[in-house]
């Protein structure tokens, strides 16, 4: 039996992204088998090559977001470099960028200019406020999008300031939304032969995630606004984060599971207690109910003991895991959510795996992150450039490379 082909085998992608939102897009495309050429600007390339946790000159952040890509480090403001880039784009299926406002437009690399030349090209842009927007010129990073989207407003304790989320959710969510958009655009091109522009905003990506804040305000004619509720839900009970014997656990007990938690706690009489018999009562008396739950939790010795009782009764619960504890954990390992990359410079690097699962592509590709400009000669050779021309471009500083 032949090994199944990667699901995006043969798809050519030009990647003009940096930091996180854009590289998330092209990382997922590369992990699905697309040929991704990452365009990096001399002299240092993607700023994340030296960001955060670094070992022997290699950034784990860069490795995580850029494995499986080829690096072309080229000065595209030089006419000779621009000629190379134009040829590469002409052969591409997808062009992805997340540069700041106006940076590529000033160089004639905006979506309108590209689609005028290449009508089958799919151009995907990821930005804080979108390219078509009253705020398109505003500079943005993840935290800016979290604030504008309203996510910070509803996160934290009721009587304290909003709290930042511990990871860059807006960047990653907008990247995943872009991948979905590219997939739909490829399907559209298959039917019509036409490419198009996909305009993804980080603020939109986060705003789209509001499940109650907008419609709840609307249907109550403005009488209800979602507010910060801290570690316990203000809408359902028992629901939230609870102190357990060793750490913390979460519970999300919906109305159908209320009898189950009463049995799990050995308090079947609570099911019909007039304070808690229906959702309205449990909400009104949630302070009392949360205290009862936490008192019961405190009677145990280990978190595992608590979780076993709850799970036996089919009560939705989970430990609050430290992300590092996912390494070796049976769930994450069984899902290939833990991925081990063998980096040529620093050896094994463990990263989160690809969340997309395909029955026709049930394996991970062996991929590493590129050195700066590692694939200059390879990419230009595929475009028809002779070896002496490539050497001359390198000597002129149009092409750059480094050993990290």
TrEMBL record:
It holds the Pfam family CoA_transf_3. SUPFAM superfamilies: CoA-transferase family III (CaiB/BaiF). Keywords: Transferase. Gene3D superfamilies: Crotonobetainyl-coa:carnitine coa-transferase, domain 1 (3.40.50.10540), formyl-coa transferase, domain 3 (3.30.1540.10). InterPro entries: CoA-transferase_III_domain, CoA-Trfase_fam_III, CoA-Trfase_III_dom3_sf, CoA-Trfase_III_dom_1_sf. GO terms for molecular function: CoA-transferase activity. PANTHER family: SUCCINATE--HYDROXYMETHYLGLUTARATE COA-TRANSFERASE. This is Unannotated protein. The lineage of its organism: unclassified sequences, metagenomes, ecological metagenomes.
């Amino acid at each position: 039996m032949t090994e199944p082909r990667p699901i995006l085998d043969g798809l050519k992608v030009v990647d003009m992204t940096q930091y996180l939102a854009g590289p998330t897009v092209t990382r997922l495309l590369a992990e699905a088998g697309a040929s991704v050429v990452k365009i990096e600007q001399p002299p240092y390339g993607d700023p994340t090559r030296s960001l955060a946790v670094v070992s022997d000159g290699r950034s784990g952040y860069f490795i995580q977001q850029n494995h499986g890509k080829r690096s072309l480090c080229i000065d595209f403001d030089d006419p000779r470099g621009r000629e190379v880039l134009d040829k590469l784009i002409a052969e591409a299926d997808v062009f992805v960028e997340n540069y700041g406002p106006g940076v590529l437009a000033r160089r004639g690399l905006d979506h309108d200019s590209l689609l005028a030349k290449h009508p089958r090209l799919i151009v995907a842009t990821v930005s804080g406020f979108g390219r078509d927007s009253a705020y398109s010129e505003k500079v943005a990073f993840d935290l800016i999008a979290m604030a504008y989207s309203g996510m910070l407003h509803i996160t934290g304790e009721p009587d304290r300031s909003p709290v930042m989320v511990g990871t860059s959710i807006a960047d990653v969510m907008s990247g995943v939304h872009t991948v979905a958009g590219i997939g739909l655009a490829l399907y559209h091109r298959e039917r019509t032969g036409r490419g198009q522009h996909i305009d993804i905003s980080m603020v939109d990506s986060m705003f789209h995630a509001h499940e109650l804040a907008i419609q709840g305000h609307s249907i109550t004619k403005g009488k209800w606004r979602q507010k910060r509720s801290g570690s316990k839900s203000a809408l359902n009970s028992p629901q939230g984060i609870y102190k357990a014997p060793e750490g913390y656990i979460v519970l999300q007990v919906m109305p159908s599971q209320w009898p189950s938690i009463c049995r799990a706690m050995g308090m079947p009489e609570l099911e019909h207690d007039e304070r808690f018999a229906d959702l309205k009562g449990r909400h009104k008396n949630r302070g009392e109910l949360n205290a009862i739950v936490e008192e019961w939790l405190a009677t145990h010795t280990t978190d595992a003991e608590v979780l076993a009782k709850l799970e036996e009764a089919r009560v939705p619960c989970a430990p609050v895991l430290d992300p590092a504890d996912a390494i070796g954990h049976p769930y994450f390992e069984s899902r290939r959510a833990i991925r081990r990359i063998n980096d040529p410079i620093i050896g094994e690097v463990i990263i989160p795996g690809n969340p997309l699962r395909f029955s026709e592509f049930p394996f991970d590709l062996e991929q590493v992150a590129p050195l700066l400009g590692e694939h200059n000669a390879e990419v230009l050779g595929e475009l028809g450039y002779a070896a002496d021309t490539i050497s001359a471009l390198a000597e002129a500083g149009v092409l750059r490379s480094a050993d990290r």
